[in-house]
Amino acid sequence: MSDPQTIIMYTDGAAKGNPGPGGFGTVLLARVNGKLYRKELSEGFRKTTNNRMELLAVIRGLESVRNKGSRIQIYSDSKYVVEAVEKGWIWSWQKKGFAKKANTDLWKQFIPLYKNHDVKFHWVKGHAGLEENERCDELAVAAAESGQLKIDKGYENPEGDSGMF
After folding, report:
1. pLDDT of 18-39, one tens digit each?
2. In Å, how far are 119, 144, 158 from 116, measured between CA atoms?
3. pTM of the prediction?
4. Are 133 and 12 in contact (CB under 8 A)?
5. So which residues are the catalytic ones?
């Protein structure tokens, strides 16, 4: 079996108002046989929160990693996300059924993706000139300001009633 690939992931979320229109940006980098691969992801939502977008940026990045067991180094300026995982809070939240916790729908999506890989989080100061973090911010803001805003069903309709569809 070959050594698992190390992937570097940068993430950021944005919300214009909190709640308000929001978006996320994710940049993934991997070096394979000396060649650098880069992937950028972003989406915008009509009404959401900054914390939801910070977490969704990580989720969408993890979803895009095809090889199970990959080593992934995630750089985020969200203490909410980084500390929840690195300090182990998420596991006590899960044991308590996420009682009275925000963004339960997203944390439940995150957990199996996280468990599929060898993930390490790193907190970085936002807007401090770190090139890839700044790029994620640009992607997140552009997505939030685009005319292509989706419905954040977990925020706008947390009970899961999707109406007619």
Report:
1. 899 999 999 999 988 888 999 9
2. 9, 29, 26
3. 0.92
4. yes
5. 12-13, 54, 77, 127, 137
